[in-house]
Amino acid sequence: MTTALAEKGLAPAPAAAPAADRRGKRGRGLDDGVPRRQIYLPLALYLLFTLIPFYWMLLFALRPAGSTSLVPWPMTGEHFAKVWNERSFGTFFQNSMIVGVSSLVMTTVVALAGGYALARFDFRIKKGFMLALLASQFIPGALMLVPLFEIFKNLQMINSLGSVVIAETVFQLPLSMILISGFIRNVPVSLEEQAWVDGCGRFRAFRAVVLPLLRPGLIAVGSFAFVHSWNHFLFALMFLSSQDKQTIPVGLNTLIGADSVDLGALAAGGVIAAVPVVIVFAFIQKWLITGFSAGAVKG
């Protein structure tokens, strides 16, 4: 009966959902019935807690010396000019960029070769080697300062940016190799085998077939290596003695005096140190998330 009426267009229209039900659906953010306010409120509090230190740093960097205003107005660039010109932050920035980019390249290249070997080859000590890589992550870098210092001293590399680059690369390689080996395992071996059948050697097949698929993983590993090298303080402090070879973390430490601290200059230096990292993550955020999630699927 109802079907016949519906075919003739005489069936009554379905009753509209109650207004309370519609409001309830709009007020729920997930399918399991969690209200939106229970999601957004903790996120807003966390965001506020995260951004307050950055705002405080920008406030001291942009407001004039001696001002107590909570708003950086009128703005001034005197603190940036001071640290860049008088405190040699231009040189520190250049040195940090050399260390960061060099560590990125060396870590990515060596970890790519080692990760491919771990992912594609079986050898007798493979499990023990993987266990050693994982165990090395529990060793603090401070414990290796003395032997590293002796090694670089014998190699006449003290007060050279190369010593910091090598130290950073060595300490970042274990985790980078583990991550890249996970990325390579996600690439089917059959793709390489098809390239071998077509006449490609192993290296050419890897370069033409596997390497393009590893772009998210390489970006993730490279960005991690760059940021770690950019922010690391200990190696640069121990292996670099002259001011013209120091990096930004060591340069920031020189702004803290025994009796007083120039908060404006220190905040301006902190902004200069943070800008490259923010820019890197702003441009590679999508690749970074994709890369780490891909590497976590298989291990």
TrEMBL record:
Keyword Transcription belongs to the record: no
Protein's cellular compartments: Cell membrane
Annotated TM spans: 43-62, 97-119, 131-149, 161-184, 205-230, 263-284
Membrane topology category: Multi-pass membrane protein
UniProt KW keywords: Cell membrane, Membrane, Transmembrane, Transmembrane helix, Transport
InterPro entries reported in the protein's UniProt record: BP-dep_ABC_trans_perm, MetI-like, MetI-like_sf
Record-annotated ABC transmembrane type-1 domain positions: 93-284
Stretch list, region Disordered: 1-29
Chief site of localization: membrane
Keyword Ribosomal protein: no
UniProt feature, compositional bias: Low complexity: 1-19
Membership in a protein family: Belongs to the binding-protein-dependent transport system permease family.
Protein name as catalogued: Carbohydrate ABC transporter permease
Organism of origin: Streptomyces cuspidosporus
Native organism taxonomy: Bacteria, Bacillati, Actinomycetota, Actinomycetes, Kitasatosporales
